[in-house]
Design brief:
The protein has about 400 residues and is an alpha+beta fold. The protein contains twelve helices and twelve strands. The longest helix has 26 residues, at about 275-300. Keywords: ATP-binding, Coenzyme A biosynthesis, Nucleotide-binding.
Length: about 400
């Protein structure tokens, strides 16, 4: 854009100011014709590099027919992760459209997230100028490809640090109906205490290598076989971590028996449990618990479809298989679990699309409240005598 065009745009009273547009950005209209997910895309010199606590998702949503400017980013900051969604044009030609990009930061790296957003802003101004992109009103909301018939109503289970369960009755009709505090943050925290692992992905990798029968008490440990009378296989978990105390007591008794035979108890080998086995056990416990609660909520609210999202899932096959099995088991095969492709970015995508109403947020609500005005007046009277 030339300087003269930029000046005329700034002088146009019909266009909102930058500050006003940031506060009230309006709904975003995206051309989703021909959109598709780019799976397993290779890294390029321009791709953000993964760092400790930062993961760039290589499954962008390609938008080949969206050519207008998108001048904002969206971030969903949770208890454990900050998820960021932003639009970029395709390299080489504006006529080739662009794509939605996804990147997540551990919340303790929020400063790095802010730096990344600042860099996106600078890149946007360099490529598109500093004027605002095309804004759309509430009367022209974003349009998506129609979902398959009968999708509503459904239960949306969002698994982050905790778990929220939302009954979705239609495009603008939803209600939180339940949840649980045992979620991804629980898995992360207990694993950090038990194993010293620091990253969620390391913990999931441990679970892939583990065998939960090393710490869990199974049905077969109690009955020696399947308990067919109530439909339980011998490999079903009877008690999470239930084998730990039993094995420790056996080791203590063996040490005592050795002492009676004149052996030094100090030389007895203590029972040890593999970190990988603990990880697999805990992952099963949390996933099974969420699956059962989700099933019960779907029964209570007569919902046939159950969709799972949230950063706890991360496309991890073991997690998805456990949730799927729980839904299938408790529903006796009548219900099925579904999983979102960009499961961890549901809130960020919603923020990307959602119009922010005027006078939204803590700043305006506090500044405009009578109590706040009275507090400021009282504070001013207290300050004046101290300054005299």
């Amino acid at each position: 854009m030339s300087p003269s065009q930029n000046a005329s745009a700034e002088a146009d009273p019909s266009r909102p100011s930058l500050e006003e547009a940031i506060i009230n950005p309006g709904a975003v209209k995206i051309n989703v014709q021909g959109a598709y997910i780019v799976d397993d895309q290779p890294e390029t010199p321009d791709s953000p590099a993964d760092e400790d606590g930062i993961v760039y998702e290589r499954k962008d949503i390609r938008l080949p027919h969206h050519t207008s400017v998108v001048s904002h980013v969206a971030v969903d900051i949770g208890g454990s992760l900050a998820k960021l969604v932003y639009f970029t044009r395709e390299l080489g030609s504006e006529s080739e459209g662009g794509r939605l990009n996804f990147i997540k930061f551990e919340t303790e790296r929020i400063d790095r997230c802010i730096e990344f957003i600042k860099q996106l802003k600078e890149d946007h101004e360099r490529l598109n100028g500093s004027t605002l992109g095309e804004l759309y009103s509430e009367t022209e909301p974003m349009q998506f490809v129609e979902a398959h018939a009968g999708v509503y109503p459904y239960l949306l289970v969002n698994i982050g640090s905790g778990v929220s369960m939302i009954k979705v009755s239609g495009p603008q009709e939803f209600q939180r109906v339940g949840g649980t505090h045992l979620g991804g943050g629980t898995f992360w925290g207990i694993m950090a205490l038990l194993t010293g692992a620091t990253t969620f992905d390391d913990m999931l990798a441990m679970a892939d290598r583990g065998d939960n029968s090393g710490v869990d008490m199974l049905v077969g440990d109690i009955y020696g076989m399947d308990y067919t009378k109530i439909g339980l296989k011998s490999t079903a978990i009877a008690s999470t971590f239930g084998k730990v105390l039993k094995m420790k007591r056996i080791a203590e008794r063996q040490a005592e028996d050795g002492a009676d035979l004149g052996e030094d108890p100090e030389n007895a080998q203590p029972v040890e449990f593999r970190h990988a086995d603990m990880s697999r056990s805990l992952l099963f416990a949390i996933s099974n618990n969420i699956g059962q609660i989700a099933y019960l909520q779907s029964e209570k609210h007569q919902l046939k479809h159950i969709y799972f999202g949230g950063s706890f899932i991360r496309g991890h096959l073991q997690t998805m298989n456990t949730l799927s099995y729980a839904i299938k088991f408790w529903s006796k095969g009548e219900k099925q679990a579904y999983f979102l492709r960009h499961e961890g970015y549901l809130g960020a995508v919603g923020a990307f699309l959602k119009r922010q109403p005027q006078n939204w947020g803590r700043r305006n609500s506090i500044e405009d409240s009578a109590a706040s005005k009275q507090f400021r007046e009282d504070l001013a009277r207290e300050i004046r005598p101290s300054q005299q």
